[in-house]
Design a protein that fits this description.
Belongs to the HyuE racemase family. This is Aspartate/glutamate racemase family protein. Pfam families: Asp_Glu_race. InterPro entries: Asp/Glu/hydantoin_racemase (IPR015942), Hydantoin_racemase-like (IPR052186), Iso_Racemase_Enz_sf (IPR053714). The chain has nine helices and eight strands. The chain has 243 residues and is an alpha/beta fold. Strands 2-1-3-4 form a four-stranded parallel β-sheet, with helices on both faces. Strands 6-5-7-8 form a four-stranded parallel β-sheet, with helices on both faces. Helix 8 links the parallel strand 7 and strand 8. Helix 1 packs across helix 9 and helix 4 (96-107) packs across helix 9 (202-215). The longest helix has 21 residues, at 47-67. The structure holds 1-(2,5-dioxo-2,5-dihydro-1H-imidazol-4-yl)urea (2AL). 1-(2,5-dioxo-2,5-dihydro-1H-imidazol-4-yl)urea is lined by residues 9, 43-45, 76-78, 115-116, 120, 147, 180-183. 1-(2,5-dioxo-2,5-dihydro-1H-imidazol-4-yl)urea binds at residues 9, 43-45, 76-78, 115-116, 120, 147, 180-183.
């Protein structure tokens, strides 16, 4: 099984780390191919970054289709371009926020999210509402670290994430925590050990869900709104997308 993991931001170091985390958790028959868009923001920390990165995600899906991918993961917690990505393939496409919410709801009745910056909290809140998980999430907390601090300032960032998770554990009335950034993919076990309650991380959760869907023989439905995009002309910068 070829599992194409798309880091929607363009930081190659983060793509490598996320890919390594995915490979460690993957089943022996799963090959992880980790890529990032050719163009776009180096980190995704707001609505503007998301809008630009979503185009890059769709371009990576197009490449994955040429290379015969069996499933895809979009590894940014805002799930940028997820529904658009699903329109472009019959393979399953999993967003890491979506995967994290599903898995957390299977092992706890209530969870909190610990993300990077407060300003990204509204993105997670919108996703909880869109996916029907608002009722399961008690609180969205931020460690107040820029995304690239997870790369450049790893130890300090980890300390802040652990502190924030401990506050969530003690104050939120929850059973589990969902980590809210793709850049936290390799931190799950360390944080769980330090905090002592189940920590769900979206990249690793998405790998196992993607393997399950492929094992079940299920892919993205082409009946209804996730059908391939209607052929039409695109103009200007996007003329190459005309079909
Ligand atoms: C993210 C993420 O997962 N990757 C990125 O660049 N920005 N979102 C977040 N809330 O930190």
């Amino acid at each position: 099984m070829r599992l194409h993991l798309i880091n929607p931001n363009t930081s190659t170091g983060m793509t490598t780390r996320i890919g390594e985390s995915a490979s460690r958790i993957a089943a022996p028959g799963t090959r992880i191919v980790a890529t990032q868009p050719d163009s776009g923001p180096v980190s995704i920390e707001g609505h503007f970054d998301e809008a630009i990165s979503a185009v890059g995600v769709t371009e990576e899906i197009a490449k994955g289709e040429r290379d015969g991918s069996d499933a895809y993961i979009t590894a940014c917690f805002g799930d940028p371009g997820l529904m658009a990505a699903r329109e472009l393939t019959r393979a399953p496409v999993l967003g890491i926020a979506e995967a994290g919410f599903h898995v957390a709801s299977l092992i706890s009745t209530r969870f909190s999210i610990v993300t990077t910056l407060s300003r990204t909290g509204i993105i997670a809140e919108h996703l909880l509402q869109a996916y029907g998980f608002a009722h399961h999430c008690r609180r969205i907390r931020a460690a107040e670290i820029p995304v690239l601090d997870l790369e450049d300032n790893g130890d300090a960032a980890l300390t802040r994430v652990i502190e924030t998770c401990r506050r969530a554990r003690d104050e939120d009335g929850i059973g589990a925590i969902v980590l809210g950034c793709g850049g936290m993919a390799d931190l799950r076990a360390t944080i769980e050990e330090a905090v002592g309650i189940p920590i769900v991380e979206g990249v690793t959760a998405a790998v196992k869900l993607a393997e399950a869907l492929v094992g079940l023989g299920l892919g993205t439905s082409k009946h209804g709104d996730l059908a391939f995009p209607r052929p039409k002309s695109f103009t200007g910068h996007f003329a190459h997308l005309s079909r």
